[in-house]
Amino acid sequence: MTSIETIRKDFPILQRVVNGHQLAYLDNAATSQKPLAVLQAMDDYYRNTNANVHRGVHTLSEEATAQYEGARGRIGRFINAGSSKEIIFTRNATEAINLVAYSWGLDNLGPGDEVLITEMEHHANIVPWQLICQRTGATLRYVPIDAQGSLRLDLLDELLTERTRLFAFVAMSNVLGAINPAAELVARAHAVGALALVDAAQSVPHMPVDVQALDCDFLVFSSHKMCGPTGVGVLYGRRAALEEMSPFMGGGDMIREVHMDGSRWNSLPWKFEAGTPAIAEVIGLGAAVDYLSNLGMGWVREQEHALVSYAVEKLTQVEGLRIIGPSGEQRSGVAAFTLADIHPHDIAAILDSEGIAIRAGHHCAQPIHDHFGIAATARASFYFYNTFEEVDRLAAALEKVQSVFSF
Ligand code: 7TS
After folding, report:
1. 2.40.50.100, 3.40.640.10, 3.30.230.10, 3.40.30.10: CATH of 39-294
2. How far is CA 204 from each of CA 40, 212, 265, rounded to the nearest angstrom?
3. Which residues of the chain have pLDDT under 70?
């Protein structure tokens, strides 16, 4: 395996100096940094190929279409989709969930129906369901979390019933770091005849994900959290489910025929891709997927697990520091914590003065914070390019924060 030092050279931004210190970028759950291969793929596209896709007979348009559709194929293989027709490009994971909520939800939900989500969801997997349940009269229910921050699986029998039409849950929490048993949850949903949607915004970037092994109906993720650019996300949908759904947005590219008295839709996946897509970004995501595949997602997971285990050990030695979420094998590369009663924004600001980037706030998961009776946490989140030395710097800086505020 290539050394971390060699890998870090692929990420120009990691050489930056911030406030007089070398950057320690520990905010990867918010967005990851981008390797040269991704920057070059997008630069090359704009320098040499730029044209609109699916509509030209000229050489550039044909090349742009081949690169865009080629990326779709590689992204599909990355998550082991059965067909590239099951890969729909959206703006981000949020839009992918909204696509399902509006296209599937408006046509399939009504009074008496239930949508089940969990207490540990990102707002992206809560608010669309609140909106659709209000519109359709369906009921939104939540699987609670326990004192450690794990899902109350013991309550699933009560919560998943013949009234449940869809179970939408996060595979890896962006706050608790909890890794949920996604395949088991999908099977439980199917056992009562419900569809299953997996929010994989945190899992696809950090561990091997196989949609056929999961057997899920929908799975969503964002390019920018997995070394790719912003502006593109992915909805994987089981072909049969997507075929039955109405389009989400109307416009060019998603139609086969338009007449003044009506239109016919394009086939999958284009039925769900109205208007000119984020062509360069999709090509950039294709390069990101190649980059991650070369590293190996099993290795990425192991590397992060080693980093976070070391971080948990070091951070818990800081007086007054409390990490939330489950421990051990069930933890992804995320550590959200409180430090005595010091405001997380103060912690993040002091760390920033040392060149260490972390996030502070509710991380778009307020129900989790309500559960623990806290308004906010500070969060360090790791990726494969982080080092043990950066963890040491984080722990030392937190010791300093603790001593500054204890006077
Ligand atoms: N789902 C999960 C589990 C997430 O962590 C995020 C983003 C999203 C959905 C939404 O992704 P988007 O690309 O559509 O915005 N999470 C975070 C975070 O933890 N800090 O900033 C964004």
Report:
1. 3.40.640.10
2. 23, 14, 30
3. 1, 407
- The predicted pLDDT at position 407 comes to 63
Nearby residues of 107 by Cβ (< 8 Å), 6 or more positions away: 245, 246
Q: Which residues pair with 252 in a beta bridge?
A: none
Which atom from ligand 1 is nearest to the alpha carbon of 95?
14
Q: Is 364 a catalytic residue?
A: yes
Q: Ligand 1 within 6 A of 99 CB?
A: no
For the record, the structure tokens of 316 come out as 């818990």
Q: Output the pLDDT for position 329.
A: 76
Answer whether 199 contacts ligand 1 (Cβ < 6 A): yes
Model pLDDT, residue 1: 53
Of 131, 190, 134, which Cα lies nearest the Cα of 165? 190
| Ligand 1 contact, 197 CB (< 6 A) | no
Where do the CATH 3.90.1150.10 domains begin and end in the chain?
4-26+297-404
CATH 3.90.1150.10 for domain 4-26+297-404 = yes
